[in-house]
C-alpha cells in the first residue's frame, strides 16, 4: 500500500478491486489518515485514490446498491458522526448527512430494504444505540436501542433478513436479533463464551460460525461455536 496503516477498513467493489481507507499510521506514518488505496487483484498493484474528506480510523464501511462505498464514524482524536460516500467511477468522496451519535468500532449492516443499520460502538464508553441510514433520502433515523451496550461485537445479516448481533459485552454472552420489519431488538440465546473482537461467518446452510475473540486483555480464545 502507499501508506502504513492499522485500524483501517477494506471493502470489495463490484469490479473485484478492493478499496482500503483511513486508519492510523502511528507516529512514523502520519498519525490518523484520510488516504485511500485501491488494490487490483489482476494486475497485483496498489493505486492511491482520492483521500476521504475526514481522517478516520476504526470506522465503518459498506457497499451501496449502486456500487459506491459508504463510510461512517470512526476516530481521529475525537469520535466522529460524519459520513461520506466514495464513487469509484469518478474517484470522488462526497460528504453525506451525519449520524446522530458519534462512534467508532460499531457494526454496519446492509438491510434488504436498502437501508444501513449502524449499532453500538464506542464514544468513550460502550453504546447500545442504533440508527438507520437511508441512501435514497440521505437521512439518518434513530431506531430501537439494543438491550445491551456493545463494543467489539459482530453483526450478521441472516438468511431470514434479521440481523444477529453477538458479543461485545464484558459481563455476559447474550446475543440479540434486530427485526427489520418492526425495527426492534429481541434477546436470543446466549453464546457458550463471553466474546469481544471475534469473527462471525454465515455458512451455506444458514448457520453462523462464531470464532475466537477475547474475554479480557489477558484471556484470548481459540474456541468456536455455531448459531
UniProtKB/TrEMBL annotation:
Q: Which organism is it from?
A: Adineta steineri
Lineage summary: Eukaryota, Metazoa, Spiralia, Gnathifera, Rotifera
User: Per UniProt, what is one Pfam family of this protein?
Assistant: Kelch_1
Answer yes or no on keyword Repeat.
yes
Q: Which UniProt keywords apply?
A: Kelch repeat, Repeat
**Could you identify this protein by its name?**
Kelch repeat protein
Amino acid at each position: 500500500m502507499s501508506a502504513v496503516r492499522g485500524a483501517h477498513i477494506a471493502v470489495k467493489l463490484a469490479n473485484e478491486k478492493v478499496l482500503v481507507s483511513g486508519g492510523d499510521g502511528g507516529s512514523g506514518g502520519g498519525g490518523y489518515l484520510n488516504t485511500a488505496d485501491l488494490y487490483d487483484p489482476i494486475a497485483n498493484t496498489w493505486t492511491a485514490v482520492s483521500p476521504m474528506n475526514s481522517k478516520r480510523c476504526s470506522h465503518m464501511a459498506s457497499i451501496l446498491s449502486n456500487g459506491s462505498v459508504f463510510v461512517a464514524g470512526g476516530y481521529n482524536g475525537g469520535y466522529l458522526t460524519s459520513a461520506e460516500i466514495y464513487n469509484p467511477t469518478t474517484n470522488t468522496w462526497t460528504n453525506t448527512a451525519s449520524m446522530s451519535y458519534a462512534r467508532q468500532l460499531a457494526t454496519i449492516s446492509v438491510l434488504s430494504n436498502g437501508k444501513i443499520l449502524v449499532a453500538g460502538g464506542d464514544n468513550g464508553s460502550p453504546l447500545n444505540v442504533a440508527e438507520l441510514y437511508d441512501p435514497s433520502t440521505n437521512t439518518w433515523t434513530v431506531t430501537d436501542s439494543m438491550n445491551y451496550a456493545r463494543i467489539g461485537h459482530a453483526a450478521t445479516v441472516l438468511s431470514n433478513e434479521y440481523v444477529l448481533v453477538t458479543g461485545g459485552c464484558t459481563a455476559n454472552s447474550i446475543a440479540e436479533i434486530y427485526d427489520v420489519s418492526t425495527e426492534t431488538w429481541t434477546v436470543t440465546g446466549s453464546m457458550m463464551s463471553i466474546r469481544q473482537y471475534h469473527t462471525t461467518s454465515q455458512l451455506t446452510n444458514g448457520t453462523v460460525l462464531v470464532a475466537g475473540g477475547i474475554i479480557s486483555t489477558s484471556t484470548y480464545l481459540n474456541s468456536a461455536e455455531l448459531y
